[in-house]
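Exam revision sheet. Question 4 asks you to relate a sequence to its structure. Input first:
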Amino acid sequence: MKKNIIISSLFLSTVIFAQNKGLVANSESPYSKLQSVGLQDVKWTNGFWKEQFDVETRNTLPYMWDLYHSETSHAYQNFEIAAGLSKGTFKGPSFHDGDFYKIFEGMAATYAVTKDKKLDAEMDKAIALFAKVQRKDGYIHTPVLIDERWGTLGPEEVKKQLGFEKYNMGHLMTAACIHYRATGKTNFLNIAKGVADFLYDFYKKASPELARNAICPSHYMGIVEMYRTTKNPKYLELANNLIDIRGTTNDGTDDNQDRVPFREQTTAMGHAVRANYLYAGVADLYAETGEKKLLDNLESIWDDVTYRKMYITGGCGSLYDGVSPDGTFYDPTVVQKIHQAYGRPFQLPNATAHTETCANIGNVLWNWRMLQITGDAKYADIVELALYNSVLSGMDLEGEKFLYNNPLNVSNDLPFHQRWGNEREGYIALSNCCAPNVTRTIAEVGNYAYNISKDGLYVNLYGSNSLKTKSLNGEEIEIEQQTNYPWDGKITLKIVKAPKDLQNFFLRIPGWSQNAEVSVNNAKITDKIVSGTYLKLNQKWKKGDIIELNLPMPVELMEANPLVEEVKNQVAVKRGPLVYCLESDQLPAKISVNDVALKVNSKFATNQFTLNNRNLVSIDAEAVINSNNSWEKTLYKPLSAKNENTVQVKLIPYFAWGNKGQGEMTVWMSH
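Answer key, structure tokens:
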């Protein structure tokens, strides 16, 4: 009997593996409208994302893997010490384990596409070490395990580390699921099962006070993914329990989104990374349970973020530090501190914007899951906006230097020092979490490009690629996409293989676009095309059919809601999905970007150029500079147009700022 159970279990794993091979294994999620294609199903062939993927595989991933094996970070050494292979102390931030798992996840996602045997061998080596570190009860968190083995950390220090142990475990579980789907191997998944079982037992016994010790809840996404991968019902039970216990203690905070239960939250609050990770995890849970209250609150919070608290770049979290007077239980005598956080509605400073790269990636993770649940193109619009702007800005063009925060203005005259600098670094000591997060995200962008459903194939992101996947009935689908997007709006989809049951293509018509045109085999589609929706193309498809989408890409001048005080009477420049910025190297000496007023009637012209071996498109414009620009010991002065001079300026994509050395930058300009 026991032998039969084992065989059945192995068979089940094989079936699940065959069906669930994307970033989220939602093929059997009852409340998910869309389903992921396989990690290996999309390959970038040329253009923007191929260049970015090449940077990932040649530079970013090797650099980060070596960095986290080096003494500089000490992350891999922490695992070796915890395993008893050497004696020493824990070094680095308490989320160091999780950062290593993120890089590992990026390696697994890359392997899914490249099948590079060297990557497979490196991963197996790391997994063998994880297995030596893991305690018999499934627990794995190197600060605590080093202390248990060597007694090199005091009780207080260990206590401090506990805050991120669940975060680290969450990234372990997610990385293990991705590794399983990429390789078919269960060696890492078995370790993750031990972690998930430990968490199940822990939360069964833990008091609400102890349970809330978990911050930055990546384990919500991780435990749901473990349920989807293994079909163990107790993992779904745990995910439900994690939501149930939030906000049930007297020591909860808005900063940690647990002052009140999630089911009472309708606006975004507190630490933006923790918030966006929470919202992504709740979206995963909704996809499995269909609890209406969860989705209602997510949609309300999404409206609050998108229409009142998000930057034009898709960045999230406006405040370095502040207070939260807007919690449900607001008492003027007890004001809570918040940090790296969402502020009040329309509170969006630029030079002091925090907009942590991890928060912006969290915005992608959350909106991606909302898209899976609903099939609503507005969520794909945010995925695209954040990816092209506030995520890519977190890394230099060569893929080896990184930003923790992503301001929209950098001014030399700002008279105070901010905690994190405005120059990318190879290693941001004690706060390097964003670099591993960008590493895994860029490796996985291809999986965002398409979805399948019972209704047909959804095309979410545009970039030259080949898609080889299967319909829900198991028939092969092959598509070749050709485009120079985001520099050009012409997109061509060629059908290489079309299953008999595939009737519908759903093309995302970006919310930023106007006057889009679509043709099939050179015959123009006359149906109404609505921006911010998916256009349904219904017919019997055959090999050689060609769909062509044309998205005009004029230069657009953007203004903000007048309640955003910081940018009142200012404009930003967008073209397609890209936000543009002005750098000070385009200006005469001793002129600040803050002295520039953009001429809104400029004859804007686009030009291709190369920067650090990357192909980009700039926008030429005219601007006005007032030579009476001294503000020394001056707070206010009369407005004067006497000394205005017109100059030519070149705007570059926001994600590319800071790649020419130190200088000023601004997204918003007077006019």
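Marking note for examiners. DSSP finds 17 helices and 25 strands in the chain.
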